[in-house]
Amino acid sequence: MDRIASPQAPHAPLLGPDELLTAYRRIRSLTESLCQPLAVEDFVVQSMPDASPAKWHLAHTSWFFEALALGPHLEGYRPFDDAFNDLFNSYYNSLGEPFTRADRGLVTRPTVAETLAYRRHVDQRMARLLGAADSDAPFLPTVEIGLHHEQQHQELLLTDLKHLFSRNPLAPSYRAEPSTPAEPKGAPLRWHDHDGGLVSIGHVGGGFAYDNEGPRHRVFLEPFQIASRPVTCGEWLNFIADGGYRRPDPWLSDGWNTVQAEGWRAPLYWYEQDGAWWHFTLSGPRAVRADEPVCHVSFYEADAYARWAGARLPRESEWELALGPFEDRARATGNFLDDGYFHPRPAPPPGPGGDPLQTLGDVWEWTASPYVPYPGYRPPSGALGEYNAKFMSSQLVLRGGSCATPRDHIRITYRNFFPPHARWQFMGLRLARDRNSELR
Questions:
Q1: CA-based angle 204:207:210, to the nearest 5?
Q2: What contacts 228, CB < 8 A, 6 or more positions away?
Q3: Is the peptide bond before 314 cis (omega within 30 degrees of 0)?
Q4: Is the pLDDT of residue 286 over 90?
Q5: pLDDT value at position 387?
């Protein structure tokens, strides 16, 4: 789903005009570089209602800057095409009548070439806007949000392309799997104890954050344990072999109904071939590797696995408390979009201190927490306040980012959210349990 959010309250920009322009050029260039492996036919097709065509991602991220920065703030600005205001609007009812999401793949015009021309039009005028801006220009925070918004769409672009290519019987590869050093054999699962108590979670300040990450507030936690790494494919294979998808006992009622209705028998993209499990990746089909974090599982599947394993999913407050102290190291060593692997990698051997592994990057981790506002949350006013507040219902929180998340976009307080049946993103899980319970 599209992800647009805004700061909890108006704030001084975290970057000045020159820094924003440098970041703007870097991020916009990266989006287009992600499209380099594509043929023109790949840009248009929409494989399911939740996914969007690559061309739409290119246009919508440009629309954001046009509608929210250029139109209101660049004197004499003329839109590239007035029709684009509704065509490439996602959910902003205050800014027009968004075109139907499920029909984005039917829009063959504008062409890919015209869409790229639209980006050039917006880029040139954004350079003009930022080049003449003072350090206290009121639109700078909006530009900053727009850059993070485009980084979200970089991840969506990759996951949507993966789903698209997976539907093709030719099983095309987005790009060849990069050569890498010999993989580690994976780290053993360990448990980390936490006393709980009265703790504070949420964004502290001092850096960019979306409105849904605050305000910082206190929660009370009972003592708990959290796993040292995400669940692996090898562990998931044991769940499958034990009839995890064939019997209802570990499943929530809605989850079991979904398994039956959708015919799920394994994570998305998995299939059996010659007695072995394979899955589709952005580098094409390959055998499932037992050491890698399992991904493309829904909340329903994650919850069922945790019950089967004698554990549970962590609450987002537990996740943030337990893994927050390792944020800097996790960002420096994690597997992100920047690394170009575009697939979860096995956990490295634990360090001398036995710190938790893969807390950022590799896979988004489902939590047991519903996506609801924090105490004291107030939606921002105006168009930028539309997205988060009106979607705080019937969704679950995920934490940590993935192998398709830009490294400088993620942080420990980041709250991603999806409905419980979704699984086309790089979604995995990390187990938790109440202290002194036993893992099966």
A1: 80
A2: 187, 189, 190, 191, 192, 350, 354, 356, 357
A3: no
A4: yes
A5: 63
Identify the residue whose tokens are 């105006």: 382
Among 180-194, 259-273, 325-339, 354-368, whose mean pLDDT is lowest? 180-194
194 vs 201: CA distance, rounded Å: 15
Residues 6+ away with beta carbon under 8 Å from 103: none
Angstrom distance (rounded) from CA 258 to CA 262: 6
pLDDT at 440 over 50: no
Nearest-angstrom CA–CA distance, 397 and 306: 16
23 closest CA partner among 138, 137, 144, 118: 144
pLDDT at 437 (0 to 100): 59
**For 375, how many CA atoms within 13 A lie in the half-sphere containing its CB?**
6
CA 43 to chain centre: 21
Distances (CA, A) of 201 to 219, 243, 317, 319, 371: 7, 38, 7, 10, 15
Q: β-strands 197-201, 427-428: how paired?
A: unpaired
Helix, strand, or coil (residue 121) = helix
Between the alpha carbon of residue 19 and those of residues 127, 147, 209, 439, the distances in Å are: 12, 12, 18, 49
CB 142 within 8 A of CB 8: no
β pairing state of 396-399 and 416-418: antiparallel
d(CA 341, CA 361): 11
Closest alpha carbon to 399 in 314, 304, 341: 314
CA dist., res. 130 & res. 128, Å (int): 6
Question: Other C-beta atoms within 10 Å of 191: how many?
Answer: 16
Longest dimension (CA), the chain: 67
Tell me the C-alpha distance between 208 and 89, whole Å. Answer: 24
DSSP state of 436: T
Which residues lie closer than 8 Å to 89 by C-beta, 6 or more apart? Answer: 60, 63, 67, 95, 96, 97, 98, 99
DSSP for 23-71 reads HHHHHHHHHHHHTTT--GGGGT--SSTTS--HHHHHHHHHHHHIIIIIH
Residue among 421, 431, 180, 155 at smallest CA distance from 293: 431
Closest CA to 290 of 346, 212, 223, 370: 346
